[in-house]
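Morning, I've got a small favour to ask if you have a moment. I've dropped the whole record in just underneath, so have a look.
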Amino acid sequence: MEYRLISWNVNGIRAIEKKGFLHWVFQDQPTILSLQETKALPEQLNKSLREPSGYHAYWNSAERKGYSGVGVYSKYKPLEVIYGFGNELYDREGRILILEYEHFILYNIYFPNGKLNRERLQFKLDFYQKFLDILHDVLKNKEGKTIVVCGDFNTAHTEIDLARPKENSIVSGFLPEERAFIDRLTDMGMLDTFRVFNKEPGHYTWWDFQTRARERNVGWRIDCFFIDSKSLDHLENAFILDNVPGSDHCPVGINLRFD
């Protein structure tokens, strides 16, 4: 069984629909498409967007309208879908969808942004810790299943993951305490799939709209797929689709195979 998994922060699903989003979906045909920053309730979407042909669709929206939100389109019906961490503080922002399949468990997460103020940075760090606690238990209790974590991490891990590391060393998204979260993630045995295949700089997934940074490729790689290291044999490829327009982020993906 082969799976093409793609993750994309669409920066508003109703806005990106007007830019040919569904045409791209049906052309690319991902097995599972994880979306972040949907900024919509399901009832605000037309049927073709809410339930695209050939896909099961799952949505977790924020209590606050027009904010945050995640969704998943899946060609296969999962065994179970979990909406959130089971903690109201984090779940009210609609940032988490967890889907369990026969061979793997998929975490689609829109991690918080910490740039607004110190309180939001602390919320982000606490959210990271909550996720690590949950992941620790899953890695211990779900042996035999591949663990896949994807989404907008809102943090670049190393200096090669953004165009201007020195200038951004005191900016949220590249702070030492944020980067330490990804260190801990890898210490737990999770692999940054893109870096399994490509260790070169210059590959980014987010560019600032206002400065037209995408045209100059002055970006950040903050959208990622991680898998547990025991499942490396199932990973066939990891990629960045930086030629796909429509959002300030581009899609990223992996190919998994289970014989």
In short: The helical segments are 13-17, 21-28, 47-50, 88-91, 118-141, 176-187, 193-197, 213-216. The longest strand covers residues 2-9. The two ends are 6 Å apart (CA to CA).
